[in-house]
Every structure is written in structure tokens, then in C-alpha cells.
Design a protein that fits this description.
- Helices cover 40% and strands 15% of the residues.
- The protein contains eleven helices and eight strands.
- It is an alpha/beta fold.
- Strands 1-2-4-3-5-6-7-8 form an eight-stranded mixed beta sheet, with helices on both faces.
- The chain has one domain (3-293): Rossmann fold, CATH 3.40.50.
- Helix 1 (41-49) packs across helix 11 (282-293), helix 5 (157-164) runs antiparallel to helix 6 and helix 6 crosses helix 7.
- It has helices spanning 41-49, 76-84, 95-108, 121-132, 157-164, 172-186, 195-208, 214-225, 229-232, 252-260, 282-293; strands at residues 3-5, 12-18, 25-29, 53-57, 114-119, 137-143, 239-244, 266-270.
Length: 296
């Protein structure tokens, strides 16, 4: 699968393109420190089988896309403090820059309009595509994401600690243990994963790419973007909000807040769902995305 240089941001983006190029496109945008492979193949196949062209890509600073080598993110405590007192810290890039990357990928593929589906940080990026490029979106689906409202319930401590825990060794077994620890702490209590299957998935991902330096820069972009409620109030793109009722990282109240601040948005919450895409939920999620894209 190819890499393109976005005509607007001049960033090299690695992507996969599935399905008939003549069909309506669905652009999948993944989250913090997550490669495109976290969109399950089964979900991509389900969407293609419903008659869509499906594109998933690595955000900048992750996977096989361009790394922002040498760029330094402010330390998390300093950035949070400066944000609190109204003096944002300088960040290497913003979530809006990342939204421009996604639109730039559509430009490079000569796709005028697409259904945009984003998960977690990818949901934030997708929201900003709807804010800044409404004419390019046929629909928006925001999954396990948030408005950035600081008054929303915080992540459960164990989930956040697992996500941002430093990688202490690049030894393969240590990396697998790190990935499994994240999966255990943010996953779905109602849809527990098979340990062996999850281990194989984590192993495939780390053999594809490991780039821990990108995570703090992406996290800095999230913090820098702040609260999007006022911006989202202007969005008129047909919007679906999907959220797990048992998400320990981005609490279900964040999904409710997202739907509340986008005019006409439809909220669907699922019991037992955490902050992942369990195999057992793929048919349900595909059905929701397809129905929304078709205006049902």
C-alpha cells in the first residue's frame, strides 16, 4: 500500500485503500498513539461488503507515516499548568494540523467528499474536519471521543496510567507486555478479549512499527486544542456519536456531551463496551456506521 505527500500540509501519510474506487468513501481516523491496524480488518471488510470504499491511514508521528523527528513536546505538567492559567505552551503541531492531514489525503486521492469516522483522538480530528471543512464531509461518526470539556469526568487512573506508561525496553517481549497491559486496562469488560488472539495482534503491530516518541507530541496536540464545544455548535454535518457505557478512558459522559453540542447528532451507547473495538462488536458498529452513512 502506498504513501502520499499531502498537498496542503506536505506530510507523508501511509494509507490503505479498500473497495471499489467508484463507491462512496469512508475515511477511518485512528486515535492517540494508535496505528491504522487498530481498525479491525473485519470492520473494514464489513464496510466494503456494504458497498463503500474504505480508507484507513496512519496519523503523522505513528505507524508508517512521517515522524516529526526532533520536535519536542512540552512536559505534561507544564502544558497543563500553562493551559490552566491561560498561557498555552508551544506544541509541535495541533489537532487542526492533523485534520488538515486527513483532508490532504482525500485531496491526494481525488476524493471530493467522504464519510469520516474517527475513534478517540481520531474522533477529535474528525470533529475538526467537520468544523473546518464541512463541504468535504458527507457524514461524521465520532466514536469513544469527547468535546474536550474540562468539566467532564476524568479517565480512570489505571486506564490513563497504562496508556501513558513509558516504554522501558525495546525488547519484543517487553513491548508485547506493554501492549497487553494497555489492552487490559482500557478494554471492554462486557467483551473480554482472548489473551492469545490479543497477543498475536499486539505482536503484529509492534513488528509493523514502534515509535514511542510520537505519543507525547500527539497528546500535547490534544491538550492544546482544549474545549471544542463552541466550535462543534456550528457543525451541521449529519453526526452519529458511538460510545461505550463502560469506557474507563473517555467516560460515556464525554460521548453524551459530544452529541449534545452538535445539532441533530444521534447518540448510541453500548453497555459493556470500553475503549477498544472488540471483535464481537464489529457487526453492530458496522451496521450503525452504514445506516448513518445512508441517512437512515
Amino acid at each position: 500500500m502506498p504513501t502520499v505527500t499531502t498537498p496542503n500540509t506536505k506530510i507523508d501519510i501511509f494509507y490503505e485503500d479498500h473497495g471499489n474506487p467508484a463507491h462512496e468513501a469512508i475515511l477511518l481516523v485512528m486515535g492517540l498513539g494508535a496505528q491504522l491496524t487498530l481498525w479491525p480488518d473485519e470492520l473494514v471488510e464489513a464496510l466494503v461488503s456494504e458497498g463503500f470504499r474504505v480508507i484507513r491511514y496512519d496519523n503523522r508521528d505513528i505507524g508508517l507515516s512521517q515522524k516529526m523527528e526532533g520536535a519536542r513536546a512540552p512536559s505534561l505538567p507544564i502544558q497543563l499548568l500553562r493551559k490552566k492559567i491561560g498561557f498555552p505552551a508551544k506544541v509541535p503541531y495541533t489537532l487542526t494540523d492533523m485534520a488538515h492531514d486527513g483532508i490532504g489525503l482525500l485531496d491526494a486521492l481525488d476524493i471530493a467528499r467522504a464519510h469520516v469516522v474517527g475513534a478517540s483522538m481520531g474522533g477529535m480530528i474528525a470533529q475538526l474536519m467537520a468544523v473546518h471543512f464541512p463541504e468535504r464531509l458527507m457524514s461524521l461518526t465520532s466514536i469513544m471521543s469527547t468535546t474536550g470539556n474540562p468539566k467532564l469526568p476524568p479517565a480512570e487512573k489505571h486506564a490513563m496510567q497504562a496508556l501513558v506508561a513509558p516504554i522501558t525496553s525495546m525488547d519484543e517481549e517487553s513491548l508485547v507486555a506493554h501492549g497487553l497491559n494497555i489492552a487490559r486496562n482500557i478494554g471492554s469488560p462486557g467483551f473480554p478479549f482472548d489473551p492469545q488472539v490479543q497477543r498475536e495482534r499486539v505482536l503484529r503491530n509492534i513488528r509493523r512499527s514502534v515509535y514511542p516518541a510520537g505519543l507525547p507530541r500527539q497528546l500535547a496536540a490534544i491538550i492544546d486544542d482544549g474545549c471544542r464545544r463552541a466550535r462543534l455548535a456550528k457543525v451541521r454535518t449529519p453526526t452519529l456519536v458511538l460510545h461505550g457505557e463502560d469506557d474507563p478512558l473517555v467516560k460515556v459522559e464525554a460521548g453524551e456531551d459530544t452529541a449534545r453540542h452538535i445539532a441533530g447528532a444521534r447518540l448510541v451507547t453500548i453497555p459493556g463496551w470500553g475503549h477498544d473495538i472488540p471483535q464481537a462488536l464489529v457487526p453492530r458498529l458496522a451496521s450503525e456506521i452504514v445506516a448513518h452513512a445512508r441517512g437512515r
